[in-house]
Fold this sequence. Notes:
This protein is mostly helical. It has helices at residues 2-29, 31-42, 55-63, 72-89, 91-110, 118-136, 139-147, 150-156, 159-188, 196-221, 227-253, 260-287. The protein has 12 helices and no strands. It starts with a helix and ends with a helix.
Amino acid sequence: xxxxxxxxxxxxxxxxxxxxxxxxxxxxxxxxxxxxxxxxxxxxxxxxxxxxxxxxxxxxxxxxxxxxxxxxxxxxxxxxxxxxxxxxxxxxxxxxxxxxxxxxxxxxxxxxxxxxxxxxxxxxxxxxxxxxxxxxxxxxxxxxxxxxxxxxxxxxxxxxxxxxxxxxxxxxxxxxxxxxxxxxxxxxxxxxxxxxxxxxxxxxxxxxxxxxxxxxxxxxxxxxxxxxxxxxxxxxxxxxxxxxxxxxxxxxxxxxxxxxxxxxxxxxxxxxxxxxxxxxxxxxxxxx
Length: 288
């Protein structure tokens, strides 16, 4: 636990130091202006002309606050911190991957010697991926509350950097989980992938929406006592439109006679709306 907190604090301080340099440069550049203004005042006041003219500039420097900005470097710092911590414990990765691999195996025994339609296969696939995501994605914020680094993260990183760094981590976690689950699902349930490109687009588009929505919902649920139950309760209704569109697009990829492009357009629309809503609301959620 001590190593995890030390790595988290070091990563947060590193991101704050990198993003604070432009503000420090601005304060340094503004010193001549403040000094010249002070000299102008000292010409009309004999008490300041004895060498205290530089005092206003020093006061302004002491009052200046280096506020970290939501730059790409700070987003990457949050992502690297989370990925290093996850790779050390593998709590969310093991839980999500185990469920995503075990569920198709159980389904293959239940539907042995049965031919499932593409629509049924698509629905089963996204049901497996959804519950695997519900198992692992809340860990992005729960581990911050459990290890006591949430306060440090609030003080040293802007909300935008936390949002997109956590969303990028959740997206990577989903991609790794699906890389193991989808091939096993296709083999065990005899799913014929007639349009691999459409399946890839549906999976990536669904991952983006899942990652962004789960990031905001995870921040809300992490501050409650029953974190896991609350996250599942609020995530399923929010993610339902995305699951319908992703299942439709996946069914088309499996060979169903359904329209592919309207489903993909709905996935993209959901991703855009989810990203915009997360960007506008996360500051209030994270600072509460």
